[in-house]
Amino acid sequence: MFKFFKKKELKCACNANETSFEPKSFSGEITSIKVLGTGCCNELNENCKSALKELGLELEVEYIKDISVIASYGVLSVPALVVNEVVLSAGRALSKSEIKELLSKA
């Protein structure tokens, strides 16, 4: 009398197509960039590094995986992009062109 159950596939939150997060804007010189995520999706981190390189900005991208730190930013879905301590995007991995557009508005 054994029942076998099919394992549920775990899906990464990074696969979200939409975000309910209202992005903010920032102004001034870019001094810090952080990617918030749980470590399962590196796409936003890589896209951010590529965008910085193409824009000629020599900044290091800090990748934060600590859930308590992520929660302190008020982010409920990852990945998220934080520039100068302002959350610009949450809930999906932005493309390189989207990141360049956000960063060039500074």
What does this structure look like?
The chain is built from three helices and four strands. It has 106 residues and is α+β, with helices and mostly antiparallel strands. The relative contact order is 0.27.
Features:
106 residues, alpha+beta, 4-stranded mixed β-sheet, 3 helices
Give a summary of the structure in a few sentences:
The protein contains 3 helices and 4 strands; from the N terminus they run E-H-E-H-E-E-H. With 106 residues, the chain is of the alpha+beta class.
Order of helices and strands: EHEHEEH
Please give the count of helices: 3
Number of strands: 4
How many whole angstroms does the radius of gyration measure? 16 Å
Query: How would the global form be characterised?
Result: globular
Which helices and strands appear, and what pairs or packs with what?
Layout (H helix, E strand, L loop, with lengths): L32 E4 L6 H13 L5 E4 L2 H6 L7 E4 L2 E5 L5 H9 L2
Parallel strand pairs: 1-2
Antiparallel strand pairs: 1-3, 3-4
